[in-house]
Amino acid sequence: MQEPDDWRRRSDELEALLATCDCLISPDEMQAAYARLAATINDGLAGRLPVVLALMNGGLVSAGQILSRLDFPLELSYLHATRYRGATSGGALKWLAQPDVELAGRDVLLIDDILDEGHTLAAVRRWCLDAGAGRVWIAVATDKRHARKVPGVTADFVGLEVPDRYIFGEGMDYHGYFRNLPGIHALPMEAE
Question: What's the CA angle centered on 119, arms 43 and 45, to 5 degrees?
Fold first, then answer.
């Protein structure tokens, strides 16, 4: 068990790290991206009565920002499937919670914080289709620019593109921390 001094020391280390990081996307730019993203979702899914699934933990922030901007009836649930579990690279997919709503014949909108390589989103999309979803849509706050994506995995709705750097904030974490930061931050280039 960690002592209070250990937690204070870890907090100081994280604050010092944050002071060296780059702010790539300001909080105001993120709010504008969420507004644009919600507008395109409104245009694409109005009248479809979709099931919206927030992917925990990262998609919690994005879903919270997007949902209040959607102006059509929807059914909301969540799921928790992860490959990272606090690490900086992914492993095997582990299900921590499956949605409690019927997907058969429904349009399903997955909301997540980022489309990086796409392994988790591909597995979740496949799971939804296997559960009978009529169509699965993907909305992400950020889409990372690189060529390492799982073939065939793309987002239908994207807030903004980000560079291929280790980023955090707006739901994305650094070793479990900083999901709560507004805006998108990146580790210093030499630390990546």
Answer: 10
pTM over 0.90: yes
In a domain, 120, yes or no: yes
CA 19 to chain centre: 24
Distance from C-alpha of 156 to C-alpha of 153, rounded to nearest angstrom: 10
Residues of the chain with pLDDT under 50: 87
Give the count of domains, the chain: 1
* Residue 129 within any structural domain of the chain: yes
Which three-class secondary structure state does DSSP give residue 17?
A: helix
Closest CA to 138 of 41, 57, 73, 72: 41
Provide the residue range defining the domain that includes 107: 45-79+93-176
Does 128 reside within a domain?
A: yes
Q: Show the DSSP H helices in the chain as ranges.
A: 4-20, 27-45, 59-67, 119-130
Is residue 43 exposed (0-12), middle (13-18) or buried (19+ Cβ within 10 Å)?
A: exposed
